[in-house]
Amino acid sequence: MRTVWAYGLTGAPTSDPAFASPEDRLRDLRRIRAAHTDGRVSLGVAVNDLLGVDWQVTEQEYALAKELDLLVPRQHQFR
After folding, report:
1. What DSSP designation does 20 have?
2. Which has the higher per-residue pLDDT, 9 or 30?
3. Residue 75 lies in a domain
4. 10: helix, strand or coil
């Protein structure tokens, strides 16, 4: 059995989130990638909604996904 687990980069909607900035979440994703060794689970990244963050954040997320060779599943819901 194989699966993909996508690390979510969207900030938590709380008054005191565990990760205060996009950089905190990217740093945690690097940590998880370094520890990821199970060949049955592929690591992916669920990037932020393209219209929900600054364009620079989107660029950073995609650049890190490419650097770490992560899958990037996408679902767009534009109205």
Report:
1. -
2. 30
3. no
4. coil
